[in-house]
Write a structure and sequence with these properties.
Layout lengths: L2 H12 L2 H20 L6 H17 L5 H20 L7 H20 L4 H4 L5 E2 L3 H4 L8 E6 L2 E6 H26 L1 H18 L4 H27 L1 E2 L6 H14 L6 H26 L10 H19 L17
Antiparallel strand pairs: 1-4, 2-3
Helix pairs in contact: 1-12, 2-8, 2-10, 2-11, 2-12, 3-4, 3-5, 3-10, 4-10, 8-9, 8-10, 9-10, 11-12, 12-13
């Protein structure tokens, strides 16, 4: 069994593009779910409108890269307002229904045949990342190091994406930490625990929820930018409901209402997926496992990871770094 390749691939996945983009989006979801108690099942839609806002602005309208970033951020704010205004004064489960429906509407609009000239249909859009890579300070080549016999190298384009991505993660974590230590953050936590008590103190619960929804959506949309720039394209089916469920898994895995919880959760999530896939694929290829073939390895790894998450929720529902009291949400 080629353990060096397995370990190298696994360690690269733990800090790779997927970990970064999901980690950023999960930080935004943690503001909604972990700190405010908002059941947002449409976080993938914020990623989608940002990625497509950038792609359409550059490829269809022919505008500069930075204009596309502004358009994507504005689209995320608009989406938060459209989802929040009719639902945030109602019970928490109404927001869950609206957000999951809104995410599907956004995805279907992006892949619709009627708007294929704008959004590219099911093929998506590509060719909008040149302005980003034009800013790349890293000369062409491979960058990394050898961890003993294990090589850990990325090409210069990936290094640029990872540099920007991890800087964004650090910035978002600092912002969340400072906000949650402020009076504003304490009001959010109070809303999560008992919004009636907050309302009795003269605070506008609707206003604070809306601010939380917008902030978490804007942070989450940064993950959409990283996805589009990292892979050089955006495709509608990437921003499906399962993407949001992955983020919830990461938030709970790392610990809800913890600043670094979503980041650690994202790293562990992709590390486990890649490690299990690599070990199973090698074991099947070498003949150590005979009851399945290589085509079944991908499905089996999801089964094993899902089983592990079930056990985690049974024995430690607060996650690795979480506090059980932080996820005791009253969804009245």
């Amino acid at each position: 069994m080629d353990w060096i390749t397995i370990i190298s691939t696994t360690l690269k996945a733990a800090v790779g593009v997927e970990t970064v983009l999901y980690g950023i989006a999960a930080i935004g979801l943690n503001i909604h779910f972990g700190y405010t108690g908002l059941l947002n099942f449409g976080q993938a839609a914020f990623m989608g409108v940002a990625g497509y806002g950038l792609a359409v602005t550059v490829t269809v309208l022919g505008l500069p890269f930075w204009v596309g970033i502004i358009v994507g951020l504005a689209a995320a704010v608009l989406l938060a307002l459209l989802m929040g205004i009719p639902t945030l004064q109602l019970r928490a489960d109404y927001l869950a229904i609206v957000t999951i429906a809104a995410a599907e509407i956004v995805r279907l609009v992006f892949r619709s045949v009627q708007f294929k000239s704008v959004f590219g249909g099911s093929d998506g859009q590509r060719g909008f990342s040149d302005g980003f890579y034009a800013l790349n300070p890293f000369p062409e080549g491979e960058y990394g190091f050898n961890l003993g016999p294990v090589p850990l190298f990325f090409n210069y384009r990936t290094v640029w994406v990872l540099t920007v991505g991890w800087l964004l993660i650090a910035l978002c974590c600092v912002i969340v930490y400072l906000l949650m230590k402020s009076p504003w953050g304490r009001v959010l936590k109070a809303i999560r625990e008992d919004e009636d008590a907050v309302r009795s103190l003269g605070k506008s619960v609707f206003s604070y929820k809306m601010q939380s929804l917008v902030l978490g959506g804007v942070i989450g949309c940064l993950g959409g930018f990283i996805y589009g720039l990292g892979y050089g394209s955006v495709q509608p089916d990437v921003f499906g409901t399962e993407t949001t469920f992955y983020m919830y898994t990461m938030v709970i895995l790392g610990g809800a209402a913890r600043v670094l919880g979503p980041v650690i959760g994202s790293m562990l999530f992709w590390l486990l997926l890649v490690l299990i896939y690599g070990v199973l694929a090698e074991a099947v290829g070498a003949g150590y496992i005979t009851f399945m073939d290589t085509n079944q390895v991908g499905a089996v790894r999801w089964i094993l990871v899902g089983l592990g998450l079930i056990l985690l929720l049974v024995f430690r529902p607060q996650g690795i770094f979480g506090d059980k009291r932080e996820i005791a949400i009253d969804a009245r």
